[in-house]
Amino acid sequence: MPQASNRSATPATASGAAASGAAAPDIATLLQLLRDELDLQERKRYPEGEEESEPKPVVPVAPAVVDGLVQRYGLPPVYRAFLLALGRQGLSLLPGPFQELVIYAAPELERAQVGFRGPRLGDDGFVAPHGWRRTWVVIAFDNGDPYFLDATKTLPDGDSPVWTAMHGTGTWEPRLAASSLAQFLQILRVWARIVVPHYDPQNPDEPLDDAHLRRLTNEIAQIDSAAASHWMI
After folding, report:
1. pLDDT digits 0-9 by tens, 87-118
2. How are strands ordered across the β-sheet holding 91-93?
3. Residue 56: DSSP 8-state
4. In 75-122, which residue ranges form alpha helices assigned H by DSSP?
5. Which whole-number Å values give the CA distances from 176 to 22, 115, 135, 161, 195, in the listed order?
6. How far is residue 8's CA from residue 45's CA, in Å, rounded to a whole number?
7. Distance of alpha carbon 77 from the chain centroid
8. Helix or strand or coil: residue 29?
9. 25 with 159: CB under 8 angstroms?
10. Straight-line distance from the first to the last Cα atom of the chain, in angstroms, rounded to the nearest whole number
11. Which of 48, 97, 137, 213 has the smallest CB count inside 10 Å?
């Protein structure tokens, strides 16, 4: 499956790349479109259960829980709206760029920081060594690689770039995964539509054919050319 690029960027560079829009994106709509695509692919994979495969209702999360996280971590407004729309249960994409991309819901967010901000839940006693910064907040995870926001790099529209870093390299070197959370969700929807249907759990390393690879490359580049290299095979 696709491997992450070694290309790196600085948070300041990505902020400029995503700051062109004046209006805040409708993050709840983008999230619902991603949910719908994942539900569609699930029905295609298991057509025999189509009559019983109604989408699961979103279990709401208390705004006070989300606001507590916003205050603790300095989260941007668009991510707050995302957590409220996501509810109490996260999402996962199988395959992700490496194995399985898990997106954390609000009740899972504090636990997601363990090993980065501190050694145990609720303990911010250290920041993981080798370049991890206290302003980075993990929002998703894929086979050891965190996806995170930088709380100091909120964009003018209230959104934020999404970064990732490869584990096991000796240093946490940030690489741009999306120039905004809105673009991150759009990229994941493309990924779900093109990559997920071709995943074979019996042969997980089988690459995409050339036609689907070109389609993936072109569609992601149209959404976010600055981050496209992360998602390429």
Report:
1. 999 999 999 888 899 999 999 999 999 888 77
2. 91-93, 101-103, 136-142, 145-150, 162-164, 175-178
3. P
4. 77-86, 106-112
5. 21, 21, 16, 8, 20
6. 36
7. 16
8. helix
9. yes
10. 7
11. 48
pLDDT(123) > 80: no
53 pLDDT band (50/70/90 cuts)? low
The answer regarding whether domain 11-231 maps to CATH 3.90.950.20 reads: no
Q: How far apart are CA 27 and CA 61, in angstroms?
A: 16
What amino acid is encoded at 140 in this protein? A
What is the rounded CA–CA span in Å between residue 95 and residue 133?
Answer: 28
pLDDT in tens, 168-194: 777 889 999 999 999 999 999 999 999
Quote the DSSP letter at residue 169: S
Give the Cβ contact number of residue 107 at 10 Å.
18
Helical residues (DSSP H) of the chain, grouped into ranges: 11-17, 27-45, 63-73, 77-86, 106-112, 181-194, 210-223
The pLDDT of 63-80, averaged and rounded, is 97
Cα dihedral 93→25→75→178 (10° resolution): 50
At 14 the pLDDT is 46
Break the chain into its structural domains and give their ranges.
Answer: 11-231
User: What is the pLDDT averaged over residues 147-166?
Assistant: 96
Rounded CA-CA distance 66/77 in Å is 11
Strand stretches in the chain, DSSP E: 91-93, 101-103, 136-142, 145-150, 162-164, 175-178
pLDDT at 223 (0 to 100): 97
